[in-house]
Design brief:
The complex is a heterodimer.
Chain A: H1 18-25, E1 30-34, E2 40-41, E3 56-60, E4 64-73, E5 80-87, E6 92-97, E7 110-116, E8 123-128
Antiparallel strand pairs in A: 1-2, 1-3, 4-5, 4-7, 5-6, 7-8
Chain B: E1 20-26, H1 37-52, E2 61-63, H2 73-80, E3 86-88, H3 96-109, E4 115-122, H4 155-170, H5 174-188, H6 202-206, E5 210-212, E6 215-216, E7 226-233, H7 235-238, E8 246-256, H8 270-281, E9 290-293, H9 298-307, H10 316-320, H11 339-343, H12 351-363, E10 377-385, E11 391-400
Parallel strand pairs in B: 2-3, 2-4, 9-10
Antiparallel strand pairs in B: 1-7, 4-7, 5-6, 8-11, 10-11
The chains are: A mainly beta, B alpha/beta.
Chain lengths: 129, 401
C-alpha cells in the first residue's frame, strides 16, 4: 500500500519560517539551533523556546532519524501514516511515513527525509532508510 | 498581596472552601437540528440556575470558552440579558470548563463576583462535522500549523500516536484500553439520555473497525450536540439554597506541549495539574471516592489516571482492566453517566459534563445503579486539545459538606 496518491495541503509560510521552506525546495531539511544555549529545536522559532535567546541560527539537519511513534489513519479514502520522527540532532518532528508498506511501519525504524510536493513549497516526509 | 479572611477565619491564599457548586445542568438533547447555538447556551444556563434555585438576575460573573458564539461573554450577556461585573474566557479546548470552575472560585474568593455562571454548548452533529477523522483547518497564524497541517493530523491519529507509544514503551494492550469503554458502557445503560446505552464487551471493542492505529471505533468518544452549565457561588449564598453543599477543595491547571521538539507522548499535563489540586485540597488518593476523567478516547483515561497518581507510570493498563472502573464492582468508579465514550461529548468538549457527574455523585443524585456509597470527595479532570500535540490539563477536587 502506498500513500503517493494522497494530496498534501500546502504549508502557510510566513517570514519567520520562510528559510525552512526555501531550503525544502532545494531538498534540504533545516532546523533552528540556539547559539546561546546550544540546543536545537523544532518547529523553528526566532526566539529559543529553551532559553529565550534571539540568537537562533538555521542549521542543516542530516535528514536521518528513527520513528518515535506513528498512527495509520484508516477511515479515509487513502490511508496514510502520521508519525513523529526523532532526528539524529535530537529533536522530534511531526511528519508522514511514505513510500512504504503502511502495515510494516514500526517504532524505532530508521528513516530518511524525502520531500513531497504540495501546491506551495514541498514538505519533509520520511521513508525507510 | 493581603489575603482576606476566609470562612474559617484564616488568611490563606487558596480557593479551598471559598466557593460552592450550587447548580448543574446537562442538556438532554444529543442532536439539536432545531436550535441555535446561542439558544443552547441560554437553555443550559436556565437549567443550571433553576437547579440552584437562582435567577439570571443573580448572576454577576460569566465564564465561557471558544464554543460560545460571537464575542463570547459579550454576545451571550447580550442574548441572555445579563448584568455582569466579572468575565473569563479561558480557552483550553474541552478542559476549559474545569478551569472555569477553579477561576470562578478564585474570583469569588477575591470578591470579584458572587454568582458565576459557566456555559458550554455546540451542535457538531447537526452541522455534520467529522470531528475526529478530518484534519481541522488551523486557526489563523498558529505557529505550529505549517509544520503539522500538511501531515494530516486528525484528533484520532494524534491520540493514536500517544496510544501507540504507550503500548511500545509499557506493553499496554488494546484489551486493557477496551476495558475503559466496557466500564463506560456498563454505566451508560442506566442513563436514559446517553447516546449509546448498549453494554459492550472487550471483544466487541477490539473487533470494531480500526479508525487510526491502534484506536478502534469503540475507543473513540461520541459526537453529540447539546451542552451544559454550572453555577458557582460563594458559600454564604450556597447555604441559603435548598441544594446539597458541594465545595471546591482544590484545583490545578497546566498546558503540556511539544517542548521545543523534546516530545514525550506517554504523559499528559495531569502530572502537574493533579499534584497541585491534591495539595490545595489537602486530600490523598485514598480519599477520592469517585473520578470523572476526560475520555475523548480510551487512551486519554489511561494516561490521565497514571499521571494523577492512581497507579505508577506505565501500570494504567492493569489499573483499568477487569472492571476496576465499574461502579459497585471496581475500586475506582469513573464516569458513571457513561462519559464521553457513551453518554455525551457536547460540542466536542467533555470537561463540563465531567464536573456535572462528579457533583451528582457528591449530592447522591447519580443513578441509583451507579451511585457511589458515601461519596464525599470526588475528582474531575479535563484534557483539552490533543495528547498528540498540545493540550490543557485541568484537575478539580470537590467535597460534600
Amino acid at each position: 500500500m502506498s500513500t503517493t496518491e494522497r494530496k498534501y495541503p500546502a504549508p502557510m509560510v510566513n517570514p519567520e519560517i520562510k528559510p525552512f521552506f526555501d531550503a525544502a525546495a532545494r531538498g534540504t531539511l533545516m532546523l533552528k539551533k540556539c547559539a546561546a544555549c546550544g540546543q536545537a529545536h523544532h518547529y523553528p522559532r526566532a526566539i529559543c523556546p529553551f532559553c529565550a535567546s534571539d540568537r537562533t541560527e538555521w542549521i542543516t539537519a542530516s535528514g536521518r532519524g528513527t520513528i518515535y511513534s506513528y498512527s495509520v489513519m484508516r477511515r479515509v479514502p487513502v490511508p496514510y501514516a502520521i508519525a513523529y520522527v526523532t532526528l539524529e540532532e535530537g529533536v522530534t518532528m511531526m511528519t508522514n511515513i511514505v513510500d512504504c508498506d503502511l502495515d510494516a511501519i514500526r517504532i524505532g525504524q530508521r528513516v530518511k527525509v524525502v520531500f513531497k510536493p504540495t501546491d506551495g513549497p514541498p514538505v519533509p516526509m520520511f521513508a525507510p532508510a | 498581596m493581603r489575603a482576606t479572611n476566609d470562612e474559617e477565619g484564616e488568611a490563606q491564599m487558596t480557593i479551598k472552601g471559598k466557593a460552592c457548586i450550587a447548580g448543574i445542568y446537562e442538556h438532554p438533547t444529543r442532536k439539536a437540528d432545531d436550535k441555535s447555538l446561542a439558544q443552547l447556551h441560554a437553555e443550559v444556563a436556565k437549567g443550571a440556575l433553576a437547579d440552584a434555585g437562582l435567577s439570571k438576575d443573580d448572576v454577576d460573573g460569566y465564564f465561557c470558552a471558544g464554543d460560545a458564539p460571537g464575542l463570547g461573554p459579550l454576545s451571550m450577556a447580550d442574548y441572555m440579558g445579563l448584568k455582569l461585573r466579572h468575565m473569563d474566557t479561558t480557552e483550553t479546548g474541552g478542559s476549559s470548563y474545569v478551569i472555569h470552575v477553579a477561576h470562578a472560585a478564585g474570583a469569588i474568593a477575591l470578591g470579584k463576583c458572587d454568582v458565576a455562571l459557566i456555559t458550554l454548548a455546540g451542535r457538531p452533529r447537526a452541522e455534520g462535522m467529522a470531528t475526529g477523522t478530518v484534519p481541522r483547518a488551523p486557526v489563523a497564524a498558529s505557529p505550529d500549523a505549517p509544520f503539522e497541517y500538511p501531515f494530516g493530523p486528525t484528533v484520532a491519529n494524534q491520540y493514536g500516536m500517544a496510544a501507540m507509544r504507550h503500548m511500545h514503551q509499557y506493553g499496554t494492550t488494546s484489551a486493557q484500553l477496551a476495558w475503559i469503554k466496557v466500564a463506560a458502557s456498563q454505566h451508560a445503560q442506566h442513563n436514559p439520555h446517553a447516546l449509546l446505552r448498549e453494554v459492550v464487551t472487550v471483544e466487541e471493542v477490539i473487533n470494531s473497525p480500526m479508525i487510526a492505529d491502534p484506536l478502534h471505533r469503540l475507543d473513540c468518544c461520541v459526537i453529540t450536540d447539546g451542552g451544559g452549565a454550572i453555577v458557582v457561588v460563594k458559600p454564604e449564598i450556597a447555604r441559603g439554597l435548598k441544594r446539597p453543599l458541594v465545595k471546591v477543595l482544590g484545583a490545578g491547571e497546566a498546558p503540556k506541549h511539544q517542548m521545543g521538539g523534546k516530545i514525550d507522548l506517554t504523559y499528559s499535563g495531569a502530572v502537574w495539574s493533579g499534584p497541585a489540586a491534591f495539595a490545595e485540597a489537602g486530600v490523598t488518593h485514598a480519599d477520592i471516592k469517585y473520578v470523572s476523567i476526560y475520555d475523548s478516547f480510551t487512551i486519554t483515561v489511561l494516561i490521565t489516571l497514571e499521571d494523577l497518581g492512581f497507579c505508577a507510570k506505565g501500570q494504567g493498563g492493569k489499573l483499568v482492566a477487569d472492571g476496576n472502573l465499574i461502579s459497585g464492582v471496581g475500586r475506582l468508579p469513573f464516569n458513571t453517566d457513561g462519559g464521553g465514550l457513551c453518554n455525551n461529548h457536547p460540542a466536542n468538549r467533555g470537561g463540563l459534563t465531567k464536573v456535572v457527574e462528579a457533583v451528582r455523585q457528591l449530592r447522591g443524585e447519580a443513578h441509583p445503579k451507579v451511585q457511589v456509597k458515601n461519596c464525599d470527595v470526588a475528582l474531575a479532570h479535563g484534557t483539552g486539545g490533543s495528547l498528540g500535540t498540545r493540550h490543557g490539563s485541568a484537575t478539580l477536587i470537590m467535597g460534600r459538606e
